[in-house]
Amino acid sequence: MGSEKEDYSSGPEDAFTSANVIASTAIKPQHRPLHDASVTLEEYMYYAEKTRAEEDSVAATAPPTTLMDMVFPSRGTSRRIEGKQPSEKHEGQKSNLNDNKLLITDLEWTNASRALRSASAAACFYLITTDILGPFGVGFSIGTMGWGEGIGLFTLFGLCAGGSGWILWKAFLDVDSYEFPVKNYGDLGFRIWGPWLRYTINFLQALQLMISVGILVISNGLSISQVSKFHLCYIVCCLIWAIVGFFTGQIRTLNKLGFLANFAVVLNLLIMFISMGVMAHSEPNYAAAQAGSAGAALGGLSVTPSANGTYPPIQRYGGIPPSTNGFTGSINGLMNGVYAYGGAQLFVEFMAELQRPRDFLKAMWGAQFFIYACYMSYGSFVYFYQGQYANQLAYQGLSPYAWQTVCNILAVISGIIAATLYGNIGIKVIYNNVLIEMFKAPPLTSTGGKILWAVIVPIYWVVAFVFAAAIPDFFGLTSVIAAICLVQFTYTFPAFIGLGLFVQKNAMRGEEAFDPATGAVHHRDSGVKRWIRGFFGRFWWLNVILLVYTLGSLALSGLGAYAAIEGLIDAFKSPQINSFTCTSPLEG
């Protein structure tokens, strides 16, 4: 980086301090407390540069990736550098990296970070695809917006989501290192903007992931109750999947989830192909369309049968279809398009376990293009053949019960894999930011950490299940939370983090780089003056774009929350029941 090395020289708590010279005795990374606000951005970037250089040198001598490695990603091995080994007594003392830090050598500290990085780019591709790929609501969304707006907005949101991924990747490479590893989304926000953003991100992420696990448990319960023709008690249908989560949740590393993620992608493609074949040779599920179709979202008139029981013909529109409930239905369809790419909340966690984080970009763009192709081809097919009858879950719009059941079963298996992924990240957010930081829990790589993980997993799944099952109209509440949380992770936070990153890097230009011998960082100015200089520095237009992107994302979140709350109000006008009953909501 040299003299152009970028910096948030002031430390995360206040990126630009009032002091023009920040000097400190050089404190080794392992001797600092977790989330030390006195660490300057220059120091983060200095060690990040060293780490990237080491990763690049290792990658240069690595064997080429084969086709089998991409289709079936190997388990991978964490890399360590051999050196002088600690004594047995010393080894026992450092079992908890939060205590006895003065006894930990530089090599031990960085090896502890290297040990967590074992995922391959292929595994990351499948994890991203499993996280984001959800094509079954695209036909519904296009049905509420029409061909033009539907395809255009899905394309726009896909490009924006990819741009957000690039911003997160760029920020991660600039501030992550073996000495100061970025373990989650909150860590990234902390290093750019300070503790307040870390707390905000961690709270929203923990809430969103908990709800995601809960809704997948409830969704799978609904599918099983439908498959059993309501002969199996509904609460038991849901509880089954919470118990399954006790076992699948024992997978600790994302690399080990790579094969399951691969399998989930195959299952989703299989559901797509089956449902497309059936739709092309059968009528829509008219009964299911009364509550969950695009026509129902637009007021229901276009899916309501006439007095003699005849249903309206399939209708398609180039623009926004007519609606009897204002624009709420179209907004709900629009928000489905926004949520369709809502996987960036896990991107930082994926990068944190990659052997070479630079590889994330090709995995992310490959996944995004694959997902977009699935969305457009499948969504367009569903809308063409089912029109306003396109269901929120497209395979639920199949009229033959046998094929609907096949798709339900496949979706249940895919859903439990996705829930395992969400639970894995959700538990890590709690483990790293609560248990380790506040209660000095052992690291996950230690024996104690593995035992504690095994205990926490069933507790987490039980809480997610109870939380989801106890709330009437849980799916309505989920829409509100998605608007408040999911939009921020995919659009608002990346743009805001990128804005802070590029402004501060501009302000660093021409200043001395971080001195690892003294820990000194020199600023030529501070405060508002530094912010203004950084904002209008090189590539000022990029900062303007990121500012508009941030504000636009916040407005989009508000619009989605409005539509979701309106839908929630309508839902509560009729009696609601929770999931602690034997009667399935689908039974009527």
UniProtKB/TrEMBL annotation:
Keywords: Membrane, Transmembrane, Transmembrane helix
Coiled-coil stretches: none
Domain Amino acid transporter transmembrane: 124-506
Biased composition (Basic and acidic residues): 79-93
Coarse class of the protein's main subcellular location: membrane
GO cellular component terms given for this protein: membrane
InterPro entries cross-referenced by the UniProt entry: AA_transpt_TM
Compartment(s): Membrane
Superkingdom per UniProt: Eukaryota
Spans annotated as Disordered: 69-95
Membrane topology type: Multi-pass membrane protein
Transmembrane segments: 151-169, 196-218, 230-251, 257-280, 360-381, 401-431, 451-471, 477-503, 539-565
GO MF annotation list: L-amino acid transmembrane transporter activity
Protein family membership: Belongs to the amino acid/polyamine transporter 2 family.
Protein name (Swiss-Prot/TrEMBL): Amino acid transporter transmembrane domain-containing protein
Source organism of this protein record: Hypocrea jecorina (strain ATCC 56765 / BCRC 32924 / NRRL 11460 / Rut C-30)
Taxonomic lineage: Eukaryota, Fungi, Dikarya, Ascomycota, Pezizomycotina
